[in-house]
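Consider the following assembly input.
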Amino acid sequence: MVMVVLVTGFEPYGRENYNPSGEIAKLMDGSKIMGEDVVGIVLPVSYARVRGLLEDCISRFKPRVLLSLGLAPRSSFIRVERVALNVMDSGPDNDGFSPVDEPIIPGGPAAYFSTLPIKSIVKRLLESGIPAAVSNSAGTYLCNCVMYLGLHFMGIFNVDGKAGFMHIPYTMEQAAGKVVGDVRGEPPPSMAFNEVLRAVKLALEVSLS
Amino acid sequence: MVMVVLVTGFEPYGRENYNPSGEIAKLMDGSKIMGEDVVGIVLPVSYARVRGLLEDCISRFKPRVLLSLGLAPRSSFIRVERVALNVMDSGPDNDGFSPVDEPIIPGGPAAYFSTLPIKSIVKRLLESGIPAAVSNSAGTYLCNCVMYLGLHFMGIFNVDGKAGFMHIPYTMEQAAGKVVGDVRGEPPPSMAFNEVLRAVKLALEVSLS
Amino acid sequence: MVMVVLVTGFEPYGRENYNPSGEIAKLMDGSKIMGEDVVGIVLPVSYARVRGLLEDCISRFKPRVLLSLGLAPRSSFIRVERVALNVMDSGPDNDGFSPVDEPIIPGGPAAYFSTLPIKSIVKRLLESGIPAAVSNSAGTYLCNCVMYLGLHFMGIFNVDGKAGFMHIPYTMEQAAGKVVGDVRGEPPPSMAFNEVLRAVKLALEVSLS
Amino acid sequence: MVMVVLVTGFEPYGRENYNPSGEIAKLMDGSKIMGEDVVGIVLPVSYARVRGLLEDCISRFKPRVLLSLGLAPRSSFIRVERVALNVMDSGPDNDGFSPVDEPIIPGGPAAYFSTLPIKSIVKRLLESGIPAAVSNSAGTYLCNCVMYLGLHFMGIFNVDGKAGFMHIPYTMEQAAGKVVGDVRGEPPPSMAFNEVLRAVKLALEVSLS
């Protein structure tokens, strides 16, 4: 039986008009990894709307691997997240909602650890020439929320699969674009898009092995 | 008449066993840029030996463009240097020489400004999707020394060409290699090697235009 | 009835021969904050030995406030920690023990949130001219371990008090000392010791209010 | 004969409503250092107006030491500048003037090295517990301009004294103020004002010795 690998990314948010995490989800949708079907989903940057969408996807696909992706504007490397916290605390999402220290799931556990093999993923990325590290905080914005909900619903629906989150850097074009027209500015860190895509595929391979 | 474009890079130094600046000089040696012959030279990381080598190259080739390259271990972007100072102040070079506040050319000018079109280079790199910025300090180690000597000898030999320096990031493999075996470490910033190579070619094109 | 405020800091570790967190614990031991007795304890940088010590202190003093302190070598500001994770993953402690992804309390919750008023503490520090921020990761070394154990034992012994952790910067002397003798080095971030001490007292006042 | 020590700082600029460099100049005005009279001057953040003011001060006071100060918003330590470049390249000053790659003194030398004992100053600061380093770039804004003009006019008027520049961090209050009301923000680096003042006095003492 062919099983499903679910890859999620985000639509653009705030002042960004591009989000590489969503582009990767779109690009991978319909492809295959180690014989498994990849379903790629672009999530809204909305606390309210992301919840039902994730719930539906996980209950429907019961993915063997759920890898969610998000943008880390100040990172020069791939961050494989260790843990998601049961908290929302951020500026406004794309619906204008700004939660302050609210639980994602009232009464839910304080945190879920990633069930992906995070150390093996980092090891494989490094050996493949891709800068990466384990990260101990996915923040308290949508990225953390999606990671928490992913792990939560995998449990709720008794899915026998692994789930987790990776933060990816700006693309090079995106970083360059921040200072176009201001030749004195310093661009933020970035990574070539095709290398990020390669990182995501490697992470899925390690997770499926 | 075909003229020469001179590209210099460095051999590895300190604890590094690889220097992308030297690899680019090797790769480009013998190629053509906008119809001009490229001569690529790998310089020793030696205050004493670099001097005669640069003097010979510049007096012999009278390059239309001299672009020297060096590694900037903490940068995530291409740094197009504005100025070279008449000072050597650093830890040991590969010969074990550690100058303290010594002039490169006793009695020489305090500084030489790059004669490359640095703002146009940065603009072109940014528009081409490569993070870059003008840098106001090339440090006080070999990189600054080579930039100073390059500009100095271009003047001494009345070469009607432009000269300057660019600092380039670690390659991705090199950055990843710093933390292989230490899955908790954070890799330094980096840039894909082929993108750095593309940046060097674009910088030469802008300089030749 | 006079109640106890418990302040813990650490002994030096690794290549450091000084730890401001331990110095503050020593300094405050025997003092009073808002009429309450302060007990200051210097903890060993030892996963094995810290456990019993914390257990004894908490069961004995049943502190109204437990504020643990630790050093954050790369921070320029006070970091008021939000959460402690049930994981130990670090290089060697002072006993040479290097845990890899082990739980602090097998079967314990994945995380404990600080029960201190972290946002109010940050607000008070900022209004008092002390740079501070909420931090979403206390790392996975002894600092995180002590925060987790503190919150764990407060629950185990049904102590009706608040507990949490603050990371503090290097002192200025300590940061300067890193580059004494290397006039070319850049010192790490730091904060004047008396300002850190003031921050700790303010945090305790806010917690007791 | 009593000689004069000239200390300059700047008025606030851009979005800042406070500039510690100007406050130090005001505070030190009229004081004595090692028996010498200190004259403290607050300079306008104006390329046009700073020139005549510096020229007048230097020709009038013929200072034994001229130490100019400016704010370095991203530094956690005192930066003792090595060199000033003959270039203005920046966003708008307080008069709205935004020069692009213009010389400060047309036909002037490309750079002036500080004539202060910069290494001895850094050494003394470090030994006194104040984080400090030599900096190889004073930027291309007003700070660099004032350093260049100071060294230039010392030469023009044949003053037998030393001149140079130090960049100082934000004060703690100023850094804290950047994130007051945004309890999620991270404050920039800073240094306690009284420590910066101590650093300036130590730098003057070393320069007068």
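Residues 4-208 of chain D form a domain with the Aminopeptidase fold (CATH 3.40.630.20). Ask yourself how this observation constrains the way the partners meet.
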